[in-house]
Design goal:
The protein is α/β, with parallel strands linked by helices. The chain has helices at 10-21, 33-42, 55-60, 76-88, 102-105, 126-139, 172-178, 219-225, 243-253, 268-277, 291-296, 312-324, 342-345, 354-366, 444-451, and strands at 2-6, 25-30, 46-49, 68-71, 94-98, 122-124, 145-149, 154-160, 184-191, 194-196, 209-215, 235-239, 260-265, 282-285, 304-307, 329-333, 350-352, 371-377, 382-388, 398-399, 409-416, 419-421, 428-429, 434-440. The strands form 5 sheets. The protein has a 6-stranded parallel β-sheet with strand order 3-2-1-4-5-6, sandwiched between helices. Strands 14-13-12-15-16-17 form a 6-stranded parallel β-sheet, with helices on both faces. The radius of gyration is 23 Å and the shape is globular.
């Protein structure tokens, strides 16, 4: 597949790395020569310096025979015009644009992206994706990572194991015997910084970070088995009243179970806008790092503090201060991946990585054919893929234990006729089933081959 990626910031670079690693023909465009040089020096990609929306630049990049264009520059308008030029002049079949402005994303203006207007096939909104990620964190606050599959019927949970976890030093095979009715499978383990797909003989140890795919109805039981106390979120303090914080507050207001929310926003004008947009939420204009403001927000009685301002350091310090003041759980939005290792040291329970969230969202639309969802783990180390089994797939009709999956691939869940089941070696994967697979990055191309997902692409 030939792909042009416009914008080589964090998101564009990660997408280029994913696709180039899978032997796609990738070209990147950016007006920043240094970013282009970084991409061409470290990845197997071609690069051009220039404005992505200029027809001559797109032509040099090979737009005439490109299969897909991904517009992920920092400008919404450049991304939109790039897709328009790619369609009108070069007839690029698939166009993906990253848009930030809420005005462009309002449902009442959705017609703008029709094929005869502004022909964008897929619109990705980082703020919307991050807000949804934040809500997932709040839904399972003791998990450091969370993603839904099968339309919410199954969930991926990242769980850090403590010394007092009741199932440490227990082989995974024995766990399945002890909790035979638990619809959950450990699909990934990070130990001493290294991520791997475990086998049945592997044991779990204190300080391991594990990834578990579980039936939605078994989330609380899964967390309890791995030593996490589950408590309903009744009081939440949000630091940051921008697009992300506002979207989270709105969603919490809309819940049937009443959640008391306090929003702290440093910018007075933004605080006033948030106050006007919210009905039951109290918005405080002030510094989220201020002990007095946090006290006024009731931080000592809060179940969670969610720090989602546009500054990493503010988010980290607000989360630390909130936890020190008595808040039970702290979640921080972190853009800089080099700061993530500090989370455990600073006693921050979970973090949200906007880059990984946006990359996962884009990959969902890049993976061929019947792939319905993709979630990127860590620094593009692994993917969790949701896909429908086609009649042409080599795995159709086979038992799980007979399937020639690579060592870095595990089946986490199977949905048959709308019912989610826990797969065993004797589970037969049939045409029409939807499966969730954990795959180390190096094994993703083989997973796509086994799923035969490219056969009905485009």
């Amino acid at each position: 597949m030939k792909v042009i990626i416009c914008g080589t910031g964090q998101v564009g670079w990660q997408i280029a790395r994913h696709l180039a690693g899978e032997k796609n023909d990738v070209t990147v465009i950016d007006q920043n020569a240094e970013l282009v040089r970084r991409a061409t020096d470290t990845l197997d990609v071609k690069g051009f310096v220039g404005f992505a929306s200029y027809p001559d630049v797109l032509e040099k990049a090979g737009a005439r025979d490109a299969d897909m264009i991904i517009a992920a520059t920092y400008s919404d308008e450049v991304n939109m015009v790039t897709c328009q030029v790619a369609h009108s002049i070069f007839a690029v079949p698939r166009k993906i644009a990253r848009l930030r402005s809420k005005s462009y994303l309002d449902a009442i203006y959705a017609d703008i992206f029709r094929r005869d207007h502004m022909p964008i096939d897929v619109v990705i909104s980082p703020e919307r994706e991050v807000a949804e990620a934040a809500l997932r964190r709040l839904a399972a606050p003791v998990a450091f990572e969370s993603e839904t599959f099968f339309g919410g019927k199954a969930q991926l949970l990242g769980i850090a194991l403590d010394e007092d976890c009741p199932v440490v030093n227990t082989p995974l095979r024995q766990l399945n015997e002890l909790f035979s009715t638990l619809r959950a499978i450990v699909v990934g383990v990070r130990r001493d910084g290294k991520l791997f797909a475990p086998d049945a003989a592997d044991q779990l140890y204190p300080n391991d970070q594990i990834y578990v795919v579980t039936h939605a109805a078994d989330i609380n039981r899964t967390l309890e088995i791995f030593g996490k106390q589950v408590k309903k979120q009744e009081r939440v303090v949000i630091v940051g009243g921008g697009n992300v914080g506002l979207a989270v507050a709105r969603a919490l207001e809309a819940r049937a179970d009443r959640v008391r929310v306090r929003v702290i926003e440093r910018n007075r004008a933004q605080a006033e806008r948030a106050a006007d947009a919210l009905e039951r939420t109290i918005v405080l204009a002030g510094d989220g790092l201020s002990a007095e403001i946090l006290e006024e927000a009731g931080i000592d009685r809060a179940d969670s503090i969610l720090a989602v301002s546009d500054d990493d350091k503010t988010n980290i310090l607000a989360a630390v201060r909130g936890k020190a003041a008595g808040c039970r759980l702290a979640i921080a939005l972190i853009n800089d991946p080099t700061l993530v290792p500090l989370m455990a040291t600073l006693n921050i329970d979970a973090h949200i990585n906007p880059r990984a969230t946006t990359v996962s969202s884009i990959l969902r639309h890049i993976r061929h054919g019947r792939v319905r969802g993709v979630y990127s783990i860590g620094d593009a180390e692994a993917e969790v893929i949701e896909a429908q089994v086609l009649s042409t797939s080599p795995i159709a009709g086979q038992l799980v234990r007979e399937t020639d999956f690579p060592a870095g691939v595990l089946v986490g869940a199977v949905m048959k006729d709308g019912e989610v089941i826990k797969p065993t070696g004797d589970t037969r994967i049939e045409v029409g089933d939807v499966i969730v697979l954990f795959s180390m990055a190096a094994d993703v191309p083989e997973v796509e081959r086994l799923l035969q997902v490219s056969i009905d692409f485009f």
